[in-house]
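job 3f2a | input accepted
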Amino acid sequence: MTRRQITLSLFVASAAACLASGARAQFLDVTLSNTDPVVTQGTTVVGFDATIFNPSATQTFYLNGDSNTTSSPFLAVDDSPYYAPSSLASLAPGQSEQILLFNVDLSPSTAAGAYTGNAFQILGETGTAGANGAIDEVVNVAFSLKVQTSGTIQAPEIDPTSALGALTCLAGCILVFRAGRRTSVPER
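job 3f2a | predicted structure (188 res):
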């Protein structure tokens, strides 16, 4: 394998790692505007805005329901924004929408700390609504919360998957840059 082929292979692997570190899950792409909000103790509601995108070129997804899990009895997911009248019923191929996806209700007695391991799942089907009868999970969105005491400033935690993806992208770019410098033809 030539040096150029190795460089190209590393670049492709780096690009794939960068894309894999995004919030892509199953059939839809969902990007929360803030996956790890920091709130002050005593906050009782935190909203999660999202951009939902259907990357399929052919499939319409009918969004029929949701489910969720939380890591603490102090947190409760309120899915009423998902079912609001302006909410989505379906996403056509290539369609993208920005909505308030869900709220998290916090108990007033929620202790300061990080609450990780939470998820919101959108359930749906493809094709004609109600035709196939199979309702499946079309996306699983992970989120966390950090509750701090008033007056405390905490730096956000770095998501290991995102950090690894960013470092892989950086390493790939450095390798491509270095390989390009070695193979460049000097000016005469």
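job 3f2a | The mean pLDDT is 78.
job 3f2a | closed
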